[in-house]
Amino acid sequence: MEEILVVQKLTKVFGGVVACKDLSFCVKQGEIKGLIGPNGAGKTTAFNLITGVIPPTSGSILFMGEELSGMKPHVIVKRGIVRTFQNIRLFQNLTVLENVIIALDQQNSNYSVGASILRLPGMKREERRVREAAMDYLRVMNLEQRADQTSSSLPYGLQRKLEIARALASQPKLLLLDEPAAGMNPEESRELARLIQKIRDDYHLSIILIDHHMDVIMDLCDSIAVINFGEKIAEGTPEEIQRNPDVLQAYLGEGYKRAKS
Amino acid sequence: MWNYIEGILCLALISVISVLGLTVFTGFTGMFSMGHAAFIAIGAYTASILTSKAHANFYLALALGGLMSGFVSLIIGYPTLRAKLQNDYFAIATLGFGEAVRVILENLKITNGARGLVGIPARSTFLNILLITVLLTIITAHYVYSKYGRQSVAIREDHVAAEMMGINLFTVRLRALFFSAVMAGIGGGLYAHYVNFIQPSMFTSTQSTTLIAAVVAGGMGSITGPFVAMLIFSALPEILRVADMWRLVAYGLILVLIMVLRPQGIFGYKELNFKFVKRWIKKIRAKKPALPAEGGDA
């Protein structure tokens, strides 16, 4: 398989704190990669670096052969890397549908300022088309019935799903999910896991997944990287990770091994 | 009597035009400008100089006045928005800009310094002010309720998420600023040709504050809200004339009350349009039969 993302020796220093130290990993085309580690290990920092929210101190990020470090976030999105947020960031006063439409607008609604002021027929056609396409994304996440609700009125779990629908509408090649199952009960997180697998297959995505639900991670991921104090301490398949003594000590805990066996 | 009312209406509608522009920038894009009087001034001076000194066509002068304001907005907007100034930081930058423009106008020869321009031809009539207001309101509504407006709203709601959606914060904010400056400039041109006399001291930060107050009190994310609010704000000092020396106090009190009772503004995130009125009537109708039952309980 071809590598879609190659992160090499990525380092980020905030003042005296090293949030990310010589982090290297790669994501293969079509793979779901898990990124796990204790709180404050630097997982979200890694996402922020990849999406260009913060510039790296040193190191390189190659996406489909192109160097990303130094690019503006909105440019990186156009290259095909889209993320969701650990603390949900929806456009709260807007409806569920509008949230998705905004993401779609950036990708493929095509009319000029003049056309919008004069309400030319072409503009109206585009608006209808974008609306329809946005509804399709809501259907994927089973949100179509909530289309006209304001997004802040959705229950927590559905807000997380809406974030994924919105991210999909940005038409990514690589999707970064930051704790999509946070705050969900086991049943909800299992359903979410199925959805993530489905969108990976339907949209031919590669996914990087941060989460603390080990059952979701172990189920979904083709490979896992474990981070602690900004450094990668292990990488491998879910089976390898579960046996790795460093990982058990730093994150999973000895109890995890016993519970599994 | 009609002359008196017409005069108030003309000035009110002219202010509405400037407020419409600011609505796009503040109510929809979420940026606070405390220097919008400067854009009104630039539009007013440009249009006046064109008509009184170059004898240009009135409407052409209005348009050029608007564009001149827009051009100046790019000069102030480019460095500040590129540096991602937001909230109070941006507001302070515009506050300084507004004062700077006023001082420049006081010292230029072509603007006749602090004495101002006199004898500007009276070209603004009630009819053309009304028509221009209607036209610009429609343009604003069309602009805001399109993909461009949605980009602005996305930035207002959450600029981090907006950027992660591929929205270029800089261009969208600059475009909104440009739009609002052009509107303010056109308003300024109309104003100058209505009162026939302008001087720099007419365009102070007090005026900028009133515009902001109208947008916030009228409601963020609404066009009709600030529209109505500005009409009220313009008419209020006249209506309150009976209270004489207490009218400014009353004016302030009304503002405070709006903010306490309806912090989202009169029409926050809503529009006063046909759909809204229909829903409102439906709500009242649905409520009516319930009333006697409530009385019975008491």
Fold and architecture overview:
- The complex is a heterodimer of chains A (261) and B (298).
- With 261 residues, chain A is α/β, with parallel strands linked by helices.
- Chain A is built from eleven helices and ten strands.
- In chain A, strands 6-7-8-3-9-10 form a six-stranded mixed beta sheet, with helices on both faces. Chain A has a four-stranded antiparallel beta sheet with strand order 2-1-4-5, covered by helices on one side.
- In chain A, helix 3 packs across helix 5 (121-140).
- The mean pLDDT of chain A is 86.
- Chain B has 298 residues and is mainly alpha-helical.
- Chain B has a domain at 2-205.
- Helices cover 74% and strands 1% of the residues of chain B.
- Chain B is built from 13 helices and two strands; from the N terminus they run ααααβααααβααααα.
- Chain B has a two-stranded antiparallel sheet.
- The A-B interface holds A 51, 53, 72-74, 77-78, 82-83, 85, 89-94, 98, 101-103, 105-107, 109, 111, 113, 116-119, 123, 127, 130, 166, 170 and B 139, 142-143, 146-148, 150-151, 153-154, 157-158, 160-169, 175, 221, 269.
In short:
With 261 residues, chain A is α/β, with parallel strands linked by helices.
Proportion in β-strands of chain B: under 5%
Provide the residue-averaged pLDDT of chain B: 86
CATH topology of the largest domain in chain A: Rossmann fold
Largest sheet: spatial strand order of chain A: 6-7-8-3-9-10
CATH architecture of the largest domain in chain A: 3-Layer(aba) Sandwich
Number of strands of chain A: 10
* Beginning-to-end CA distance, first to last residue of chain B: 49 Å
Top-tier CATH class of the largest domain in chain A = Alpha Beta
Helix and strand sequence of chain B:
HHHHEHHHHEHHHHH
Order of helices and strands of chain A: EEEHEEHEHHHHEHEHEEHHH
Question: Largest sheet of chain B, order of strands side by side?
Answer: 1-2
- Largest interface: pair, residues per side: A-B, 35 and 25 residues
What does the radius of gyration of chain A come to?
A: 19 Å
Q: Helix- and strand-based class of chain B?
A: mainly alpha
